[in-house]
Design brief:
By secondary structure, the chain is α/β, with parallel strands linked by helices. The chain is 33% helix and 24% strand. InterPro entries: LysR_subst-bd, WH-like_DNA-bd_sf.
């Protein structure tokens, strides 16, 4: 290298400035090597390939199953693995070479909202390096545009409404979901002039739905998470103005040329189109 990459002090060692630069580039170099090996192997017919997927919860429940089923039916020789992680962690896994495709989402920027910092979100240690919108250097394949929907107990006074504004729920107890969605809902409420009373929080969407159905509070969730809502105890009411959520499949540029990855992306796009066409089962 011509310059030290480690500085030793007794039994301890730390990276020098040159070492930090080398470490920063190592991840992308390894990812490109892995992609090159898989592409060459596919061309040579030495192996069918392997695709490592990571997805957030509602994507795992809706978009992923039909995509995997189609992939297996068409190419049973391609191995596909799946793990779950919310976008900050999923994006970090993609950058670190721990997956080939990451399903992720992001909400539009809100005017007047300060940038996210670790101090502002102590519950999310990856916030400063893996913001939901930090897709720089990644290839984003649009899958669908989701929207936020209000969940109300069947006995709520607004259960029969055709639409609602967040301020209509300012005096209610709220049940809030995953950290990324929770942050965005809190920002939306702040723009509407109130702070939601967050007595109950959980990363599990079925738990949110169950708590609302039991009359423990109200919630606002992405419509993609509402594919199996119990119709007797829950009412879904559209939120106005509409709050969109962009859902994409992310990959590294080096993985774009891997045949198995390209095929998996194709099936994810097809599955996403089906997910958009299928309405939620709970009554409006």
């Amino acid at each position: 290298m011509g310059t030290p990459i480690l500085a030793r002090s007794g039994r301890d060692a730390r990276l020098t400035e040159a070492g930090e630069i080398l470490a920063r580039h190592a991840t992308s170099i390894l990812a490109r090597l892995t992609a090159a090996e898989e592409e060459i192997a596919a061309i040579a017919g030495l192996q069918a390939g392997c695709v490592r997927l990571v997805s957030f919860l509602s994507g795992t429940a809706t978009v992923i199953p039909p995509a995997l089923a189609t992939m297996r039916a068409e190419r049973p020789d391609i191995e596909v693995t799946l793990s779950e992680a919310t976008p900050p962690r999923a994006i970090a896994m993609l950058r670190d070479g721990d997956c080939d495709i990451a399903l992720a989402f992001r909400y539009p920027d809100l005017p007047g909202t300060p940038p996210r910092t670790t101090a502002a979100y102590p519950d999310d240690p990856g916030a400063e390096k893996a913001d939901d919108a930090n897709w720089n250097g990644l290839v984003a394949h649009p899958l669908l545009t989701d929207r936020l929907v209000g969940l109300l107990p069947a006995g709520h006074h607004l259960a029969g409404a055709e639409k609602l504004e967040l301020t209509d729920l300012a005096d209610d107890t709220w049940v809030l979901g995953c950290a990324s969605c929770r942050r965005h809902v809190v920002k939306l409420c702040a723009r509407s002039g109130f702070t939601p009373r967050m007595d109950l929080t959980t990363d599990d969407y079925p738990t949110v739905i169950g708590l609302v159905g039991a009359g423990m509070g109200v919630a606002v969730l992405p419509e993609l998470a509402l594919s199996s809502v119990p119709s007797a105890s829950i009412r879904l009411v559209p939120v106005v103005p509409t709050v969109p959520r962009e859902v994409v499949a992310l990959t590294l540029p080096a993985h774009e040329s891997v045949p198995a990855v390209r095929l998996m992306l194709q099936h994810l796009r097809s599955a996403a189109r089906l997910a958009v066409q299928e309405p939620s089962t709970a009554p409006r």
